[in-house]
Amino acid sequence: MKTHLRRRDQIGVFDVVNTLLMLILVFITLYPFYHIVCASFSDNTMLSAHKGMLFWPQGFTVAVYKLTFTHPLIWSGYRNILIILAVALPYNMLLTLFCGYFMSCQGMMFKKIIVGLILFTMFFGGGLIPSYLNMRQLGLYNNLWALIIPTGVGIYSAIVIRSSIDGIPKSLFEAAEIDGANDIYILFRIIPSLIMPTLAVVLLWFGVGHWNSWFPATIYIKDNDLLPIQAVLRSVLIANQKLTSDIQVENDHYNSYAEVIKYAIIVIGTLPILCVYPFLQKYFVKGVMIGAVKG
Amino acid sequence: MTHEKVFRAIGIRETKLTFGQRLQKDLRRNKYKYLIVLPVLIFLAVFCYKPMYGIIIAFKDYRPSIGILESKWVGLKYFQMYFNDPYFGRTLRNTFFLGGGSLLFGFWAPIVFALLLNEVRNIKFKKFVQTTTYLPHFISIVVVCSMISLFCQNDGIITDLAVAFGAKREPLLQNAKYFRPIYYISGIWQNFGWDSIIYLAALTSIDPALYEAVEIDGGGRGAKMWHITLPGIKTQIIILLILAIGGILGADFEKVLNLYNSLTYETADVISTYTYRVGLQNGSYSYGTAIGLFNSLVNVTFLATTNMISKKFADIGLF
To answer: Would you say A206 and A86 are in contact if contact means Cβ atoms under 8 Å apart?
Structure first.
């Protein structure tokens, strides 16, 4: 009897090519970040003179970082987003949990109507201008509340929470009710520990969403020191406002670093996500699975 | 009906409660549940439904100073204005091209990637590739567009690449003809990894016995892919395709806003960015609302039509 490697255990041309392809894709994904980081640690004049791809900093210096970390707008940018996260995340989680719990309950006369009203908002809304006018009318302009309150419920997340609650055996709820628990007790004491992974994913979704949000700040905030970090980034890098103040000396100072500063600001704006991402990645993937399979 | 007859036959009369009594019973039993959903409803009322009422300003000559109710009705004036607007064709065309092009060039990328990645046998390497390729999805669009604008500068590396393909050396984002390719390619770069998750998950649920059957019949990798793998993820592909087609006309507002400038309006200006410029920045609230409403209605119609066609021909639909 001839024994031979089964076809799938042999390493063929395809495997070599495929592995190479994967490596190229990894490189294409990571290189832009690497280029930016290298550039941010470079000397301004040497960087401007450099052509082509970058594999190490041109004249290593942390001068630009010293400059940006002392700039008030960067500080206020970080401060604002942290305040927003601290206030908005509990608010979002509570509201979304309420929504998800209600959608999972049964036997209510008005459930269909209410759920219908909730889901309808996923497909139709006022649009940019009516929403803007609404916010102005409510006084949600030029303050941080304008960036917190409208984020309210995440309906997709609520649906995912609902699916999770549906997975809890009914007998648990019945036992609790016999022991005298009402809905509020069930919602706050019993359910959270049972759907903790789902809640973690939903929290992450909200967190990343808030961190990356910039457009509401662009239209609802006027004072620069109320801008969260992404909006600061945008106004400097894309809208091309200069990171300068009125003092002439400061102007020259920043101008001589004009090129490198852009790279440093990009790093500053995305560093937290880059740091936190490897540890949280598996939660995000899990979240997609839950959403896709059960949603 | 039959259970009533049975009950009556053995002497039990089932009383039907009136609406009022049912309401009372429901409120008593479920009062906390309704209380719990109340904040959600208040939120939706204030931030979703109240602006919906504001849509009527598309049919009025809205003046902020006199308010919505007092402003004069003008019917379809602003809709007609949009259809006669010289930029109507441009915005519609660009919205369609950016959305449709992203679909055409980008829809298959995550699928092919998932199929190839699935063939990688080293688990550690596979996980490594996955972790790295998911990363761009989490970067904010501001950072992505900033990177693009830096790399597309006169001496940027993407510009270098374009020149290598024969292009003239210039800041790419200032030339309208480069906008679409940059838009498509950056979209693929950012999302091919993350979008492949659904397909990868579906691939793992294909019965390995099916592959073995093909192998026994003498089939190689190609046969396996064609006969087992692709049909195995057929449902996911079709559902995601419906979603994608349905969303064609909702071109990515934030990305376009960050990448375009007055020099590239010709290929970049979409309905939503036009609404933003004209309606918000210029203060033509009624006009902007009319365009926005038009956009929403077209989107919903597109989605519903796509869903209906798919249900008819492939028996798969979203709703």
So the answer is: no
Residues of A in contact with B64 (CB under 8 A): 133
Q: pLDDT band at residue A1, thresholds of 50, 70 and 90? A: very low
Segment B157-162 mean pLDDT: 89
Mutate to test the interface with B, among A98, A129, A134, A277 (most CBs of B within 10 A): A129
Residue A92 pLDDT > 90: yes
What residue segments make up the domains of chain B, in order of their start? 19-73, 79-314
- Mutation to test the A interface, candidates B146, B217, B278, most A Cβ within 10 Å: B146
Q: Is domain B79-314 classified as CATH 1.10.3720.10?
A: yes
pLDDT tens-digit map of A229-248: 999 999 888 877 655 443 34
What pLDDT is recorded for position A245? 43
**Sequence-separated (6 or more) residues with CB below 8 Å from residue A9:** none
Is the interface score ipTM higher than 0.90? no
**Is the separation of the CB atoms in B227 and B113 below 8 Å?**
no
Distance CA B99, CA B113 (A): 21
Print burial letters for A148-180: b (CB count within 10 Å at least 16), e (below 16). Answer: bbbbbbbbebbbbbbbbbeeeeeeebeebeeee
CB contact under 8 A, A214 and B138: no
Tokens found for residue A43: 């000397």
Chain B positions in Cβ-Cβ contact with residue A25 (cut-off 8 Å): 113, 129, 133
* B37·A18 Cβ contact <8 A: no
Class for the domain spanning A65-294: mainly alpha
Decide: A196 and A209 in contact? Cβ < 8 Å. Answer: no
CA distance A288 to chain B (A): 8
Encoded tokens for B40 = 């959600």
CA distance B245 to A170: 39
Domain segments of chain A as ranges: 7-61, 65-294
